[in-house]
Design brief:
The chain has 124 residues and is an alpha+beta fold. It has one domain. It is built from 4 helices and 9 strands. The strands form 2 sheets. Strands 1, 2, 3, 4, 5, 6 and 9 form a 7-stranded antiparallel β-sheet that branches. The longest helix is centred in the first third of the chain and has 11 residues.
Length: 124
């Protein structure tokens, strides 16, 4: 599948982001990818200081920081931290977002089926 066909496919609203906040997992529809998706993740996390971690070939975990390199104080985000731990990453505090694959440095959203599967798995 070429990048242009991916853009067309993603514009029909069948793609999602998963927002993990306040102990809940919320399925958020999107038609964005690339830098537009990064801006949407930043908006959902409520911070311009965001960090991404590629946790598998198909998943990217994003979380906000209070400043570059300074995580939020407080207890870990249960859903995000369990997902991070499964892939050998440190615990995540504060809100987090899961997106799909990173292809040539460009982030993509999850397809609807993968989002539903992840929502169920994370207890949302």
């Amino acid at each position: 599948m070429g990048l242009f066909s991916r853009r067309k496919e993603s514009s029909n609203g069948t793609h999602r982001l998963l927002l993990m906040k306040d102990g809940r997992v919320k399925n958020v529809p999107t038609s964005l990818f690339g830098m537009e998706l990064v801006h949407e993740v930043s908006r959902l996390l409520g911070s311009e200081h965001i960090r991404s971690t590629r946790i598998s070939d198909e998943l990217t975990l994003w979380h906000s920081e209070i400043a570059p390199g300074r995580p939020h104080p407080g207890a870990p985000n249960p859903a995000a931290s369990s997902l991070a731990a499964e892939h050998g990453s440190p615990p995540v505090t504060g809100p987090a977002v899961v997106t799909g694959e990173m292809l040539y440095g460009t982030p993509y959203p999850l397809d609807a089926d993968k989002a539903a599967q992840m929502t169920t798995r994370l207890g949302g």
